[in-house]
Amino acid sequence: MDSTPLKFDLPAALSEYSPAELERLSDAGEVVKENLRLLAKSGQNLVGQCLAHQGTFYEEEHYPKGDVYDGESHAQYYYHAHRPESGEHGHFHTFLRSAGMPRKVRPAPYSGDAERPSGKDALSHIVAISMNRPGLPIGMFTTNRWVTGETFYSSEDVIDMIDRFDIEQSYPCLATNRTISALMRLFKPQVVALLKLRDKTLTGWAEKYPDRDIYEDRELEITSIVDINIDRQISELKKARRLARKR
Question: Which of 36, 121, 134, 212 is at 20 to 30 A from 179, Cα to Cα?
Answer without folding.
Answer: 121
